[in-house]
From TrEMBL:
It holds the Pfam family Catalase. This is Catalase. Keywords: Heme, Hydrogen peroxide, Iron, Metal-binding, Oxidoreductase, Peroxidase. Its cofactor is heme. Its EC number is 1.11.1.6. Decomposes hydrogen peroxide into water and oxygen; serves to protect cells from the toxic effects of hydrogen peroxide. GO terms for biological process: hydrogen peroxide catabolic process; response to oxidative stress. It catalyses: 2 H2O2 = O2 + 2 H2O. PANTHER family: CATALASE (PTHR42821), CATALASE-B (PTHR42821:SF1). Residues 4-69 are annotated as: Disordered. One of its GO terms (molecular function) is catalase activity. Heme binds at R125, R165, F214, R411, Y415, R422. It comes from Aquabacterium soli.
Length: 756
């Protein structure tokens, strides 16, 4: 039973993992939800394809799963075979000429096994190598037919299966989850008119304006080529050398230095399509659109010291969090929102909507919710699904089209191209996780690893021998929006692209004081890792144009004077329409309040007051949180009245940075034991430093004192997330503790440097 799942949770959309019969009958003691009638293109409330009325809206079944069924393998109860299906008699010993003699070349069983093993790895993605994926579905809120003919938006309740992959960008496949980095947010919609891939990030803008610069950017941020250092980090010379010479990166740098780049969870971050795309309706009318994903779980982040410590404590922090939540039936959910705007509106903006270093403030174009995305099933096999999934911005469907964003243009080429070497040929669309649910018929043939067996002698068009099939769909097929173009062929950029700082300033000015402090600290940290002083200097000279306050703070942190601003590309930059945009601050998006799936550590030891521990555990479980008892070693602890508690984790194997909140127990013997254990004090210090709620019962005040935890905030005000109570009064403080946990972090406690 997985940790988050506790004893009671079970993901009804995934039959038991173990046992040959698991595909048909659930493991004992759990309820199995029958597959819902929702097939691709169906609505949740409609009868299913077979005409039978369904079981009602069970938002669980994924049509992708049906198509993947044909390739699923369950070896339970089966005999071991070679890849040719020949039963293997001995899987322990190679074939030898005598027990001590040479191994024979003839041993095809050994050779097949080793040969396959030798080729198990494929090239990792050049960027976004480390990621985690899940299956789910998208459900449209209502018809968007006036805007787009894309079939997934055709009617209210229409359900389209999806596969989503989240990722970091710079780190290699085996790197850590909580690096400071942009996160990928790639969604493959298996629509009934073909696959649409919305390959986005958790930040709405990008570092560069033109695809021409992408290889340079990536070469700059990846580990330096001479020594392969550093892994999964932008805090090094080549990255800051490049971006400090590219003022267009400044806006994105502000986002990347904000807490957005260290999310608490993949489940708790926004997603953005970044570029302007087009929606095209059945009449051929088109408007521009920007895509937004907003998490129902709220948008929450780590703090840097916490992120660094989690890298060591659990490098798979985000992967595990996503996996556990889905296994436990805590399906993460996002709302898709659209910013729709016309060419005429776009022309009037002070910025260019083809420039991916700019966003459209929500004050100018509001975000309209149009549907929800739910992830409800973990992959069966990481390699087959998460590693082999191939997202391509070129994968669009009728009703979705491109803008002329020059960054997007390069992407339309790059993603298909990269899969050809990564996945070994042009037939990567036939790999089960990539193959559309919509049928595929064309005259493309052959190539490495071809799976389809195309029948007949016709592989060309026009033909008469095949009755002209497959025939063109005409206007029912994908028709590119006929945007008029009349211009010179040039290498260059439109003038508005040359304004680099307005939106960086907008972003900075829209942050809370604590968020601003974290941005300054992140610049200080990253630039302090740069060894060439001139690069640090140049970067601060760029920040001068963003905010004098920010430049001063960073300069102070680096021990330099604020330099004069870099020369600007434009003498008279256009005036921005919006000065402050609350939606750009993380705190603007609290999400649904609640503590579901939040991890709470309850520290225990022999002699603990058992009644209050049990009460806290029960109350947290009732709210959907995941309380875990932590002690010096595994096994059981015996409470003061003789009750016993199972210990779930140890102070050593599960550092407190992995918890969202901490409970310290009462009971003199327990406190005496914990006081002598340095791990306990680190536990408390980290929770305090990272502004997480602490519930300290009775005598545990002694632990707080030994850890040096201040009673009040620096200004003498009470610390509302440091909640103290006698064990008998625990019920009266639990609501306050739960409220603090739901607020995620108690920022009034934030200080730089930390007080303890
Ligand atoms: Fe990517 N990007 N990118 N990118 N990108 C890749 O494709 C590329 C950009 C993004 O989970 C690669 O399959 C170019 C912006 C995500 O599998 C590659 C340019 C955004 C993922 C590639 C960009 C992204 C990728 C590497 C500038 C946010 C991971 C492996 C012109 C809107 C998808 C692969 C997954 C992956 C190229 C810029 C998002 C090399 C040339 C902007 C989420 O094709």
């Amino acid at each position: 039973v997985n940790q988050l799942a506790g004893e009671t949770h079970h993901n009804p959309n995934k039959a038991g993992e173990f046992g040959y019969d698991s595909a048909v009958s659930p493991p004992q003691g759990v309820t199995h939800t029958p597959p819902s009638p929702a097939t691709v293109g169906s609505t949740l409330s409609e009868p299913n394809a077979s005409g039978k009325t369904g079981h009602g809206p069970v938002p669980g079944h994924n049509a992708t799963i049906d198509t993947l069924d044909r390739v699923r393998v369950d070896s339970t109860g089966r005999v071991l075979t070679t890849n040719q299906g020949v039963p293997v008699g001995d899987n322990q010993n190679s074939l030898k000429a005598g027990l001590r003699g040479p191994t024979l070349l003839e041993d095809f069983i050994l050779r097949e096994k080793i040969t396959h093993f030798d080729h198990e790895r494929i090239p990792e993605r050049i960027v976004h190598a480390r990621g985690s994926g899940a299956h789910g579905f998208f459900e449209a809120y209502g018809p968007l037919t006036d805007l787009t003919r894309a079939s997934l938006f055709a009617e209210a309740g229409k359900v389209t299966p999806v596969f989503v992959r989240f990722s970091t960008v710079a780190g290699e496949r085996g790197s850590v989850d909580t690096a400071r980095d942009v996160r990928g947010f790639a969604v493959k919609f298996y629509t009934d008119e073909g696959n649409w891939d919305l390959v986005g990030n958790n930040i709405p803008v990008f570092f560069i304006q033109d695809a021409m610069k992408f290889p340079d950017l990536v070469h700059a941020v990846k580990p330096e080529p001479h020594n392969g250092i550093p892994q999964a980090a932008s805090a090094h010379d080549t990255f800051w050398d490049f971006v400090s010479l590219m003022p267009e990166s400044t806006h994105m740098l502000l986002w990347a230095m904000s807490d957005r780049a260290i999310p608490r969870s993949y489940r708790m971050m926004q997603g953005f399509g970044v570029h302007s795309y087009r929606l095209v309706n059945a009449k051929g009318e088109s408007q521009f659109v920007k895509f937004h994903w907003k998490p129902k779980q709220g948008t929450h982040s780590l703090v840097w010291d916490e992120a660094v410590k989690i890298m060591g404590a659990d490098p798979d922090f985000h992967r595990r969090d996503l996996w556990d939540a889905i296994e436990a039936g805590e399906y993460p959910e996002w709302e898709l929102g659209l910013q729709v705007f016309t060419e005429e509106q776009a022309d009037k903006f002070s910025f260019d909507i083809l420039d991916s270093t700019k966003l459209i403030p929500e004050e100018l174009i509001p975000v309209t919710p149009v549907g929800r995305l739910v992830l409800n099933r973990n992959p069966d096999n990481f390699f087959a699904e998460t590693e082999q999934v191939a997202f391509c911005t070129a994968h669009v469907v009728p009703g979705i089209d491109f803008s002329n964003d020059p960054l997007l243009a390069g992407r339309i080429h790059s993603y298909v191209d990269t899969q050809i070497s990564r996945l070994g040929g042009p037939n990567f669309h036939e790999i089960p996780i990539n193959s559309p649910i919509a049928p595929v018929h064309n005259n493309q043939r052959d190539g490495l690893h071809r799976q389809a067996i195309a029948r007949g002698r016709v592989a060309y068009e026009p033909n008469s021998l095949g009755g002209g099939c497959p025939f063109q769909a005409g206007v029912k097929g994908f028709v590119s929006f006929p945007q008029p173009i009349k211009d010179d062929k040039v290498r260059g950029k439109p003038e508005k692209f040359a304004e680099h700082y307005n939106q960086a300033t907008l972003f900075y000015n829209s942050q809370t004081e604590v968020e601003k402090a974290h941005i300054a600290a992140a610049f200080r940290f990253e630039l302090s890792k740069v060894t060439v002083p001139a690069i640090r200097q140049r970067m601060v000279a760029s920040l001068v144009h963003v905010s004098a306050e920010l430049a001063a703070k960073v300069a102070e942190g680096l021990g330099i004077e604020v330099p004069p601003g870099l020369p600007r590309a434009l003498d008279n930059p256009p005036k921005p329409e919006v000065k402050v945009s609350p939606a750009l601050s993380l705190t603007a998006l609290p999400g649904e309040v609640g503590i579901r799936s939040r991890q709470v550590g309850i520290v225990v030891a022999n002699g603990v007051d058992g009644a209050s521990v049990a009460a806290v555990e029960k109350a947290l479980r009732a709210e959907g949180a995941v309380p875990r008892l932590v002690s010096i070693r595994l096994g059981q602890v015996t409470a003061v009245k003789g009750e016993t508690f199972d210990v779930h984790a140890t102070l050593e194997n599960h550092p407190s940075v992995l918890f969202d909140a901490l409970v310290l127990p009462c009971g003199q013997d327990a406190i005496d034991t914990l006081l002598t254990n340095g791990h306990t004090l680190e536990y408390i210090k980290d929770q305090y430093r990272h502004c997480k709620p602490i519930l300290a019962l009775g005598l545990s005040e002694q632990l707080l004192a030994k850890a040096g935890i201040p009673d009040t905030l620096p200004d003498g005000q009470p610390d509302e997330a440091l909640i103290k109570a006698q064990p008998s009064k625990v019920a009266s403080v639990l609501p306050a503790f739960i409220a603090q946990l739901s607020a995620h972090r108690y920022t009034p406690r934030d200080s730089d440097p930390p007080r303890v």
